[in-house]
Each structure stands twice: as C-alpha cells, then as structure tokens.
Amino acid sequence: MDVNEFLAQPLVARVAAAGPSVRPVxxxxxxxxxxxxxGSYSKLGRELDVDPRLxxxxxxxxxxxxxxxxVTCRGTARVVPLDRERALRKLRRYLGPQEDQWPARFIxxxxxxxxxxxxxxxxxxxxLLDLSW
Length: 133
Prior knowledge:
Helix content is 21%, strand content 41%. By secondary structure, it is an alpha+beta fold.
C-alpha cells in the first residue's frame, strides 16, 4: 500500500496546534494537502492566526496482527473559504454516499457563512511508515 492509498481511507487524523492542543479531524487528502471543515464553533482558526504551524498524525493499529501504519507530518495551515464540493467529498468518505441519510449536524456547516476549510500543507511529502511490532 502506498501513502496515497492509505490516506484515501476514511481514517481519523489527530492535529496538534501550538495551544498546545490535539484534536481529531475527518480529512481529505487532495492536491498535496490535508483539508477539513472549520467554522465559528472551532478555536483552531483563531489559533492558526497566531501560529500557523501544525503537526498531524494518521495511523492504524491492527491488534490481531500487530500491524501499525502511520503518516506523520509537520507544516503550516490556513483557513480558506469553504469549497462545498471538496467538503462533500470529504463527508461522503466518512458518512457514505446517501447524503439524505446524513445527520443534520453534518450538513449545517455547508450552509453556514462562518464555515471554511483548513488547508494543511506538509513541509515535505508524507510517507507511510510500517511500525509493526
């Protein structure tokens, strides 16, 4: 499996900001960047105004086999205007293709004028590490 196949899975990334704080995010990996939704409900956008540096990890652990796969990145992030189509692609990976069956709390940010997207660009291309034990 290569890094693009790994990042195409509906995994959860954990993002660390200078707060220091760590938060889980649903993301989409496109155009050499990680993207996720944000809005007035999140402090991360305000934290990025002060310090745009982030660290991110996406990993899996199969307890039965001991296989651990991991992508870890450092880089900078910024809030950009909401890209509705990108946001929908991201939501479909986690919630499935039946948008009419999604809980309203996932649709609401798409129509909220305070919503945007975080664009996190790693300092170097991510690589997939096999940390199996």
